[in-house]
Amino acid sequence: MRDLQEGSDREWDAKLGILTAGAGEDSPDMVNFRYEPTPYAVLERLAGSGLIGPDSVLIDYGCGRGRCTLFLHAKTGCRAIGIDHNPVLVGEAKANLAGMTAAGTGPVNASALSHKSSAAAGREDPERAEGKTVTFRRMRAQDYRVTVEDSFYFFNPFSEVILQAVLQEIIASWYENPRQIYLFFYYPKDEDVALLSMYDEILFYDEIDCTDLYGGQDDRERVLIYELSAEE
Questions:
Q1: How many CA atoms lie within 13 A of 151 on its CB side?
Q2: What is the CATH number of the domain that holds 45?
Q3: SS3 assignment, position 42
Q4: Is there a domain that residue 31 lies in?
Q5: In this structure, is residue 141 part of a structural domain?
Q6: Residue 2: its pLDDT value, please?
Q7: Mean pLDDT, residues 183-205 taken together
Q8: pLDDT attached to residue 108
Q9: Among the four residues 27, 66, 117, 127, which has the most C-beta atoms within 10 Å?
Q10: CA distance 166 to 39
């Protein structure tokens, strides 16, 4: 099953004009984990969930070479921002964005800023103001200031220490700018689920079952979806 999915992943890379397969040439440590791309079959199910669309602003934490960022943008029309601490991987992600643009597969000319509040506008940065549809940034996840973003993707990018800081930033932005927010956790760890349960603001919403993709033997093959509701 894995071999079949890897073949499909190569086909999707070729179709989009990018190169994202394989583990990253990075140096994982105690808090930042090695890059591994989400299978396209999983991303297809997420894109088909109806929870991400042209009005969404997506953050892909630990974006690596940019597969998730670029694919979800291409499939849903969302505005997408990939964040990674590793300069080599961010460079590869930017090269993939250039390749995708040259291949004519994206990014689309769309803006997802129509729903930002005046409170969020005060924290706007130049790239947001320019309305860029796909952006890659080399920075620590905990240093990214959340404003209008409403969709957040995680595939085990970092430790619970960093995840806690990121969740607190998301919650703070939600109080400042109330809106419907979705958090997507692929292949979730028990530690992540336990941490999420500690926040009253974050509620379990649904899950996307992906166990059938790999023989049905691994119950972590799923995307857990959490929400912060637009209504406090």
A1: 25
A2: 3.40.50.150
A3: helix
A4: no
A5: yes
A6: 52
A7: 97
A8: 58
A9: 66
A10: 24
**Alpha-helix runs per DSSP H in the chain:** 2-16, 40-47, 67-76, 87-102, 118-121, 126-129, 160-176, 190-196
Q: Does residue 30 form part of some domain?
A: no
pLDDT number for residue 186: 97
Contact between 155 and 187 (Cβ < 8 Å): yes
Length of the chain: 232
Query: What's the predicted TM-score (pTM) here?
Result: 0.86
Residue position matching structure tokens 């997506």: 58
Cβ-contact 180, 229 below 8 angstroms: yes
Q: How many domains does the chain have?
A: 1
Per-residue model confidence as pLDDT tens digits over 41-75: 999 999 999 999 999 999 999 999 999 999 999 99
Q: Give the span between the Cα atoms of 195 and 187, in whole angstroms.
A: 15
Q: Please tell me what DSSP assigns to residue 20.
A: -
Q: Which residue has the higher pLDDT, 104 or 30?
A: 104
CA 25 centroid distance within chain: 20
Q: Is 63 buried (19+), middle (13-18) or exposed (0-12) by CB count in 10 A?
A: buried
Q: Report yes or no on 148 lying in a domain.
A: yes
Q: Report whether 63 contacts 135 (CB < 8 A).
A: no
Range of the domain at 75: 2-21+38-228
Confidence tier at 115 by pLDDT (50, 70, 90): very low
Beta bridge partners of 182: 151, 227
d(CA 209, CA 153): 16
The two beta strands, 151-154 and 57-61, are: parallel
Q: Output the six-digit token pair for 168.
A: 């607190």
